[in-house]
Amino acid sequence: MQRSAESRRCYACGSPRLLRHKELYKLSLAHIDCDAFYAAVEKRDNPELLDKPLIIGGGTRGVVSTACYLARIHGVRSAMPMFKALEACPQAVVIPPNMEKYSKVGREVRQLMRELTPAVEPLSIDEAFLDLSGTENLHKAPASFVLAKFVQRIEKEIGITISVGLSYCKFLAKIASDLNKPRGFAVIGEEEALTFLRDKPVSIIWGVGKALTAKLNSDGIRTIEQLQSTEENVLMKSYGVMGQRLYRLSRGQDTRRVEPEHEMKSISAETTFNHDLSSSDDLVPVLRALSEKVSHRLKNGEIAGHTVVLKLKTQDFKSRTRNRQLSSPTQLADRIFHTGLSLLEKELDGTKFRLLGIGVSDLSGNERADPPDLVDIEATRRAKAENAMDFLRNKFGQKAVETGYTFGKSGLGRPQTPSEHVKREEKD
Ligand SMILES: [Mg+2]
Predict the structure, then answer these.
(1) DSSP string of 231-269?
(2) 199: annotated binding-site residue?
(3) 20 to 30 A Cα–Cα from 184, which one of 1, 257, 328, 348?
């Protein structure tokens, strides 16, 4: 990146990749995205694959998870059915995904990102926003230099490549990282934002999916330029709150901040009752409902907990906390509930409780969670049933399926919903 006036190469490292930009010393918001991540990790681990088209996919869903760039030349794309991918590229090597390995590499990359700035907001296993503003003193260099070095570091230490988008806001940083993939480094400055966006399709805007694109198109709006020349109130009249977003983003106005991820210590849900409760008939349905809430959060966050924690508060405000460590981390409502139930049963001695909570701690990724249990066939069967319920809930909403424990039990005399909440305890 550093260059002498007449040189076509960097005088510091000899690279022919030179980047010039007016705002290069000013911009500090980056989006970093690993290139063909799963495929890159597999190629790193097996050099024989380097010059072969590689598809990570198959398995249960029968679609392409990631295609390497060689396979993409033949027209293979992510989410394509495997049979189509192999029609397009019959010579491709196919490897089933090894999520455990990719999560590990993803965490290593994230760890190195955190050495640049604490403001790292992961979007998925292989991409994140980084806010490097205010780090110039620490690194003794502007963000663009720090990022260029980071690209080299990832290649050397992790053995994969990344693409960087550098801008002044999230919206354009994310677009930029995609511009010169793979091994891309693109910059979109404030001055050029309007012109850059002008001829782009509306679908490039974050939050404009298939349905909204179709609606905008049918209203005659195809390019961002058309949005740029429409007044805010007109857009809001037609598209509601989204209209305001269209107005702002089409003009490169995006004030969303990079929200760093906090390491969570535990995830729990608890309820304070209207009337103090003491019987298992009253408490068990609540425990079940709360277990499902906790599990929902874990599944959404792709995390699992190794220890189940039951919390009770008695009528006279005394807390009782009971834990049990499991043989493996879990994210299943069923395992959380049954473990919680065995802890709860010991506490049911007529004491009246004003609060019940259940949660998990010792959090980790979900790679090792809930292995098929060869000993407890019943638990395996229930885990399968739970997966089927999750599928229905994802499709038709949380309330679509209720278990026998909670069915029809949300009526009178039951806990108030306003005081029921899910807690995330965070490490500082
Ligand atoms: Mg990626």
Answers:
(1) -HHHHHHHHTHHHHHHHHHHTT---PPP-PPPPEEEEEE
(2) no
(3) 257
CA of 315 to the centre of ligand 1 (A): 53
CA distance 38 to 296: 26
Which has the closest alpha carbon to 249: 237, 259, 241, 238?
241
Q: Is 288 exposed, middle or buried (0-12, 13-18, 19+ CB in 10 A)?
A: buried
Q: Which two tokens stand for residue 126?
A: 């292989």
Q: In whole angstroms, give the CA distance from residue 108 to residue 114.
A: 10
Cα 277 to middle of ligand 1, angstroms: 51
Placement of tokens 């906090």 in the chain: 262
8 Å CB contact between 318 and 366:
no
Whether 367 sits among the annotated catalytic residues: the reply is no
Is 33 within 8 Å of 25 (Cβ atoms)? Answer: no
The answer to whether the beta carbons of residues 61 and 96 sit under 8 Å apart is no
Q: Which residues pair with 32 in a beta bridge?
A: 128, 164
The radius of gyration of the chain from alpha carbons, rounded to an integer in Å, stands at 26
Q: Of residues 48, 87, 100, 127, which has the active-site annotation? A: 127
Query: If the chain, 428 residues long, is cut into consecutive pieces of 10 residues, what is the mean pLDDT of each piece?
Result: 57 73 90 97 97 86 89 94 94 92 92 92 89 91 95 97 97 96 95 96 89 93 96 92 91 90 76 92 96 90 88 92 91 95 95 95 78 68 81 69 59 40 49
CA of 220 to the centre of ligand 1 (A): 33
Distance 91 CA to ligand 1 centre (A): 24
Do the annotations mark residue 33 as ligand-binding? yes
Tokens standing for residue 413: 């005399």
- Residue 400: the pLDDT is 62
- Nearest of 287, 302, 367, 301 to residue 335 by alpha carbon: 287
Q: Nearest CA to 348 among 295, 374, 312?
A: 312
CA-to-CA distance for 228 and 234, rounded, in angstroms? 12
Tell me how far the alpha carbon of residue 34 lies from the centroid of ligand 1, in angstroms: 4
In the chain the domains, ranked by start, together with CATH numbers, are: 15-191 (3.30.70.270), 194-250 (1.10.150.20), 264-426 (3.30.1490.100)
**Torsion sign (Cα): 256, 261, 262, 264:** positive
For residue 237, give Cα distances in angstroms to 181, 215, 227, 232, 234: 38, 14, 13, 9, 5
3-state DSSP assignment of residue 280: helix
* Cα separations in angstroms, 288 against 292, 333, 334, 383: 6, 8, 8, 15
DSSP letter, residue 203 = G
Q: How many CB atoms lie within 10 A of CB 194?
A: 14
> Which amino acid would we find at residue 324?
R
